[in-house]
Amino acid sequence: MQLAGSTIFVTGGAGFIGSAVIRHLLGNTGARVVNIDKLTYAANLNSIPGANQSPDYSFERADICNGPALRSLFEKYQPDGVMNLAAESHVDRSIDGPGDFIQTNVVGTFTLLQECLGYWRRLAAGRRDQFRFLHVSTDEVFGSLGANGRFTEQSPYAPNSPYSASKAASDHLVRAWQETYGLPTLLTNCSNNYGPYHFPEKLIPHIIIKALSGEPLPVYGDGQNVRDWLYVDDHARALALIIERGQTGQTYNIGGGNELTNLRVVEQICDLLDGIAPARSGSRRQLISFVKDRPGHDKRYAIDASKLERELGWRPEETFRSGLEKTVQWYIDQEPWWRSILDRGYVAKRVGLSV
């Protein structure tokens, strides 16, 4: 499909990755975007600055679990494609309250697939041939790696948390709707994202904000869990490329090729902040505090993105160092964005320890 002139639904478009996708679509593709989001605690429409002034942007507050609401939006906007990024995504919260994750990630995906299928079947043949449904998922569905190897598109699913299990279930639903009903779907599994506009409960913004305040910097366990980090704008470019040029029925892994231990990530944040905004108390590394590990904490993730690179020509533009520099500077410059989240009641307290 051609993005220019197309109408694209982005579910979860007020979230971290969804908002990056919308910023990219509006700024670089010529697509018309309908942002569908129910505005949960982690949503923030301020993450899409200037969108309301764009004639190519519309916002609809709706829950993907609400079939009639989705049906009316399909009829109203007549989209050419759907990018599904609506999800509960914080692993620690899934440990304490798995029900919300099952509802949004499983029931919501099912409901969206059903409404999408009904709409797609009613399209004229030419538009039906061009339509695409892109489901955005995570590398966590594959479980935990040992010291060697990387996840490929053929890796078996072995989710270990309620969050990853709910995303695995949604992936299976998407594949089933392609195989059983012929709905033209694409599926992506990405590594850990980071960058501007990231909600403060996630590791990198959490550490930046606490370090700026001179508070202890919590690191789970021994800090040796390894993640592959992907700059969010690189991810957004990949998703736009996949919905435009990817082969329906296929899965594409998206990774940044940046494997680091959690401890090393925290240390790099400390060093960057010490260089940009030195603290009177000295190095921020002294604030690092090791805390009780997360139950079922996967040891290592690593993505093999060679299929995406080979077939569609995508490459990440940011190294972890360059992306982290941009991210740290953004949180320093854009304090009003994250300060408003704290002011409206978000408290960065530890969750996910109940078993």
Description:
With 355 residues, the protein is α/β, with parallel strands linked by helices. It has a domain at 7-194 and 231-257 and 297-318: NAD(P)-binding Rossmann-like Domain (Rossmann fold, 3-Layer(aba) Sandwich), CATH 3.40.50.720. 42% of the residues lie in helices and 16% in strands. It has helices at 16-28, 67-77, 91-96, 98-122, 125-130, 162-181, 203-212, 232-245, 262-276, 306-312, 320-333, 335-343, and strands at residues 7-11, 32-37, 57-61, 81-84, 132-138, 185-190, 192-194, 217-220, 226-231, 251-254, 259-261, 288-291. A seven-stranded parallel sheet has the order 3-2-1-4-5-6-10, sandwiched between helices. Strands 7-9-11 form a three-stranded mixed sheet. Helix 1 links the parallel strand 1 and strand 2. Helix 2 packs parallel to helix 4 (98-122), helix 4 packs parallel to helix 6 and helix 7 crosses helix 11 (320-333). The chain is globular. It starts with 6 loop residues before the first strand and ends in a 12-residue tail after the last helix.
